[in-house]
Amino acid sequence: MALPRMPAPIRLRELIRTIRTARTQAEEREMIQKECAAIRSSFREEDNTYRCRNVAKLLYMHMLGYPAHFGQLECLKLIASQKFTDKRIGYLGAMLLLDERQDVHLLMTNCIKNDLNHSTQYVQGLALCTLGCMGSSEMCRDLAGEVEKLLKTSNSYLRKKAALCAVHVIRKVPELMEMFLPATKNLLSEKNHGVLHTSVVLLTEMCERSPDMLAHFRKNEKLVPQLVRILKNLIMSGYSPEHDVSGISDPFLQVRILRLLRILGKGDDDSSEAMNDILAQVATNTETSKNVGNAILYETVLTIMDIKSESGLRVLAINILGRFLLNNDKNIRYVALTSLLKTVQTDHNAVQRHRSTIVDCLKDLDVSIKRRAMELSFALVNGNNIRGMMKELLYFLDSCDPEFKADCASGVFLAAEKYAPSKRWHIDTIMRVLTTAGSYVRDDSVPNLIQLITNSVEMHAYTVQRLYKALLDDISQQPLVQVASWCIGEYGDLLVSGQCEEEEPIQVTEDEVLDVLEGLLVSNLSTPVTRGYALTAIMKLSTRFTSVNRIKKVVSIYGSSIDVELQQRAVEYNALFKKYDHMRPALLERMPIMEKTASNGPTEIVQTNGEAEPSVVEAKHPPPVTQPTNQANDLLDLLGGNDVVPVIQTTVPTKPASAGGELLDLLGDLSLSGGPAPAPATSVPSSQPAFLLDGLTSPPLFNDIAAAGIPPMTAYNKNGLKIDFTFERANPNPNIAVITIHASNSTEADMTDFVFQAAVPKTFQLQLLSPSSNVVPTLNQGTVTQVIRVLNPQKQQLRMRIKLTYTHKGSAVQDLAEVNNFPPQSWQ
Predict the structure, then answer these.
(1) Which residues contact 91 (CB under 8 A, 6 or more apart)?
(2) Over 50: is that where the pLDDT of 369 sits?
């Protein structure tokens, strides 16, 4: 008994209509699953009658995002069919459902080969499309001969498809490129625009992938004159409804030819000379009222800028970009700004003519256009227009969104440093930035401005008065407050005496100045770094003001501050008043003029965590007094392996003996009282007059300390990260100190990618072993340990610079610290 036949499946059109009636995603999913089940049943029954219809429906479901992989083999069956309608759906399914990662596609190779030699051009076209879309390298090798034969045929329909298929073959198997070289000779003589278009695409691919092919087409094939002829015919030809787009003849072909000319003319004088005239014609004859014309003009500009074109032609190209800036279309304005930014270095004067239009783009509502305009405006700044451009950019800085302020402030700093017409203008400009966008400036702005002020001797009174006024108005901008504190500490006497000649002096008393600085110490807006600046400024005023008792009181109060760095400053400054009062005037004297020195070329001040590295800031001193060798320590190179970039080596300039140049470690002195070990030295910004007496100690101070054991110490404690050192001696060699670091984290988030690096003076040798982990657990739930071995054959006092790098809450953190208070047992 024969099984009853299944009813005929619904047509594709009906399926689409049914699916569109679904009101919810679940309802649509149910319809799709039901139809897929019916299609699977039909496939299992080998129903050839409706296979084409079922695969077509399956492709529609695939387009909706539903799985349709079970129809892959059915596509191959349709391809093997003799009916054109079956082949059409089968090849379409193969292009959508198959790719070279699946072995099933190899089963198609023989079918495609047979269809490439089919008597019907439309079947051949289907095979070429499929091979050009998803052919693997194996298929391309097997079928390249058939593609090359079709490329030589006289049938335009097949030649254009064969050219695109050849592009795919070359991308998959570049070594087959030479096979298609003979067929390219006559491609550009074709009248059919489709063949011309695909031929230019093929030639472009060959030139981009092979320098030898590029040289061959330049010299042997004389490709440039042929392309120039085709492009000229397109420009000069009359209206052709078949190829016309908004009044322009075949803009797609024009764009492709311009791109190929760009490749051929780049770096080649003869080719560039041959295309100069046609590029000028395209640039002047193309209609710009429609977007089609703008696309051709943009490609023309890119070609002119890339080849060795004449200067007049380049000016014409830049003028076209200038016209683009006035276009209402935001995309056109954006590409114009981007292109001008690329050409401003080579054609600076031509771009300068459009300066006013570029500056107007700073007011655009589109943020991407605004950013490009800002970058281009900074590129246009020079010594002649610095005042006008800075006025516009400072106005932009006042009103721009927060995400622009950091980049804009950095650009203003760099431009002012390079082109400042006078030091007063330079100082005024930077102060204007600090008052309007101080919270967004780069970390190096504070030491750079301090150096600028220090070197401008004649501007000291004017600067300190301006900064004092700024402090009275606003103390929220921390970089401004830090610079102002430093200047008041250095030049407070000029402020009180009213010696300003640049503007009308203000009447300020010593108590008023101290009130302002004390206000910074207690303000909630002040960061720990700012408080350090303020305390140091108050200390420096003890040699410039008469209110010494008040200053002593303030300094002594902060000797018990919970901020370890502030506490250490206060303790050291307090010791200056008590034990070393005779040295205080010399130690707190005014900073000498600093000058920049280049270590490897014309570099600027090297910055580390917002502070200037002393390697590139040297002070001018009187002839130095030679110090003993064991005290003139080389400062530290960061070591620790070939992967670590070394910190620039620094040297400490010696000072006259009369100025108390040998710094004293007062903390070592204070520890003799039998109290606890001294507070650890934390990271010291080298641009600040910080830790004034840190680093030099007299060895006899430690003779009475018991040598029974080496006490541990805290080397670093900042932002929740604590680094403790424990010590032991190596048994075979007593000159080797073994230091174990213990890193703990008191914050609520893990510190990942943790890297500890250390460096010692050159008289020591250091070996850094691998750490136990690179993650410091949260809330002190564990520690990361790492062993350091230090060879100290000369028994010198141990000094170390450490560098810490880690990621915390998604932000990369990097910090430097100097450790100078090692227990004497660790190095004696």
Answers:
(1) 75, 79, 126, 127, 129, 130
(2) yes
Per-residue confidence (pLDDT) for residue 5, from 0 to 100: 57
- Tokens for 635, please give them: 């400062």
The pLDDT-based confidence of 544 (bands split at 50, 70, 90) is confident
3-state secondary structure 610-677: CEECHHHEEECCCCCCCCCCCCCCCCCCCCCCCCCCCCCCCCCCCCCHHHCCCCCCHHHHHHHHCCCC
Rg, C-alpha atoms of the chain: 39
DSSP letter for 600, please. Answer: S
With CA atoms as reference, report the closest residue to 357 among 390, 382, 392, 384. 392
Q: Between residues 238 and 745, which one has the greater pLDDT? A: 745
Residue recorded with tokens 């050009």: 132
What pLDDT was estimated at residue 689? 39
Q: What is the DSSP letter of 800?
A: E
CB atoms within 10 A of CB 339: 20
- Structure-block tokens of residue 389: 């451009």
CA-to-CA separations, 13 to 53, 60, 396, 641, in angstroms, rounded: 10, 10, 58, 70
Mean pLDDT of 695-712: 45
Confidence of residue 636 (pLDDT cuts 50, 70, 90): very low
Q: Quick check: helix, strand or coil at residue 420? A: coil
Q: Cα–Cα distance between 386 and 415 in angstroms, integer?
A: 8
What single letter denotes the amino acid at residue 483? V
Helix (H, G, I), strand (E, B) or coil at 378: helix
* SS (HEC) of 475-511: CCCHHHHHHHHHHHHHHHHHHHHCCCCCCCCCCCCHH
Please report how many Cα atoms fall inside a 13 Å half-sphere around the Cα of residue 663, on the Cβ side.
19
Question: Does the pLDDT at position 594 exceed 80?
Answer: no
- Amino acid in position 281: Q
What gap in Å lies between CA 110 and CA 328, rounded to an integer?
Answer: 55
Q: 728: which DSSP letter?
A: E
Nearest to 464 by CA among 430, 511, 496, 420: 496
| pTM assigned to the model | 0.61
Residue 801: name the closest of 821, 816, 785 by CA: 816
Which amino acid, one-letter code, is at 750?
D
Element (H, E) at 594: strand 594-596
Q: What are 434's two structure tokens?
A: 């600090």
116 in Cβ contact with 108 (< 8 Å):
no
Q: CA-to-CA distance for 551 and 555, rounded, in angstroms?
A: 6
Q: Which helix (H) or strand (E) holds 75?
A: helix 72-80
Q: Which strand (E) or helix (H) includes residue 753?
A: strand 751-759
